Structure formats: C-alpha cells, structure tokens
Hints:
Largest sheet: 4 strands, mixed
Strand content: 35-45%
Helix content: 10-25%
Strand order of the largest sheet: 6-3-8-7
Oligomer: single chain
Shape: globular
Number of helices: 3
Distance between the termini: 38 Å
Order of helices and strands: EEEEEEHEEEHH
Amino acid sequence: xxxxxxxxxxxxxxxxxxxRGENIPKGLYHLVVSVWIVNQQGQYLLSQRHPDKQYPLxxxxxxxxxxxxxxxxxxxxxxxxxxxxxTLAPEQGKLxxxxxxxxxxxxxxxxxxxxxxxxxxxxxxxxxxxDVQWVNQDKLLNMFQKKQxxxxxxxxxxxxx
Length: 161
C-alpha cells in the first residue's frame, strides 16, 4: 500500500503520512507529479490509461503520487520507470509547472524531460498503461481540443510555449 507525506498549504511537510485511499485531512495536501517526455523531433510521449482506472482510456503523460520520503523529482523518475520501464536521468528534468489544487488536495508538479526512446523498448505496467504513442504538437493540441487527453491536463499552453 502506498504511503504519502502530507503537506500544509505552504507546501511544508507536516511530518504526517497517510495511505492511498484514505481521505486527506482538511487543510492538508499530498504531492502529485506528471512527466512530459519530448524527443528530438519535438514529439511528446503519451500513454493510454488502463480501462479499469478512473478516466479510462484517456491519453496522458505519465505521472502519479509521490511516495513518502521522495521529493517531486524522485517521484517523477520513479513513476516513469514503473509505468513505462524508462530510466530518466534526474539531472535532465526541468520543473515547468506547479499548482496547488484545492479540489484534489494536492500540489501538482509537472516535469519536462528530453529523451529519445523507441516505443518497442518500453515495458508497460499492465495495470496502468495499455498503449503509448509519440505525437507532434499539432496532434497533441488536436487531442486536447477533442477531449482525448486526461481532463486534468489543463495547462497545455504552459507545455508548448
């Protein structure tokens, strides 16, 4: 079972933890990351969510909750390794977006990495991801407009600017 650190509204660790699935106490937050990977052709790596998950079959960048004891970057690198079998170099990550989401009770960090990875070399986590694809900026925007991307990806202008 996943354990998460809890933070106050100033993004300071409180010393409290919780298990995934428990209700987050009012006024506290946990940390969530998303990771965008861009290749040399300027294409973005998208993964398709498993049909049994919330937001089934939507396309998204890889991400998830940061585990207790991890920082945002460590959580980002771990999530990509778990879900796609890709090992990213932490020093190559760039934090491009941060937001406190009141409705989700989380701090949401978005990381950008540049990497060229052959889809055939990826090892998809069967319970999380059913497909992957590289898309160019036009297709990404088209998927956003057609609501094919995960609905919580609302910051697309930050990514492509």
